[in-house]
Amino acid sequence: MNSVIETADQWTDCVNAKDIDGVLSLSATNVEISGPRGTAAGHDMLAQWIENSGIQLRTLARYVKDGKVIYEQKASWENEDGEVILYSFFLVKEGKVTQIARFDLLEDAFGSSGLSEEDLV
User: Fold this and answer.
1) pLDDT, tens digit, for every residue of 57-109?
2) Which member of 19, 43, 54, 61 lies 3.0 to 4.6 Å from 14 by CB, making a disulfide possible if both were Cys?
C-alpha cells in the first residue's frame, strides 16, 4: 500500500512542478487519462496535458486499496482565480500509474473504482 501512495504522491508532485519527464517515468506507456473533456491514452497525450493544464494539486485525503487510490485534492489553475475540490483516481501496477481519472464528486470516484470511505488512510 505504501508504494502505491508513494507513486501517486510522486506523480502529483511532478505534475505540480510541470516535470514532464518525471510524470512519464512514473506512468505506463499506454496510460489512460479520463476527465471532463474525455478520455485519451499514452505518453504524448499526458505530456501535452501537463504542459497545457497549469494545474496545481494539494492532496487533502487518500483512499487506498489493491493498487487503487483516490485523492481528494484542492486544485487551482494558472491564470484562473479560485480553487475547487476534485477527486483523482489512480490505478498503480508494478510501480507505474496505468490509469488516471478525474471526478467532481467523491461518490462518482467511489462508484467507478470500487473504493469506499472504509479505505481512508
Assistant:
1) 999 999 999 999 999 999 999 877 889 999 999 999 999 999 999 999 999 99
2) 19
Taking the alpha carbons of 82, 72, 69, 89 in that order, is the dihedral positive or negative?
Answer: negative
* CA dist 56 → 13, 91, 94, 113 (Å): 9, 20, 26, 23
Question: Does the predicted TM-score (pTM) go above 0.70?
Answer: yes
Q: Quick one: which of 52, 54, 57 has its CA closest to 72?
A: 57
Strands (E), the chain: 27-35, 38-41, 55-65, 68-77, 84-93, 96-103
Contact criterion met (CB below 8 Å) for 83 and 17 = no
Judged by DSSP in three states, 33 sits in strand
38-41 vs 55-65, strand pairing mode: unpaired
DSSP state of 92: E
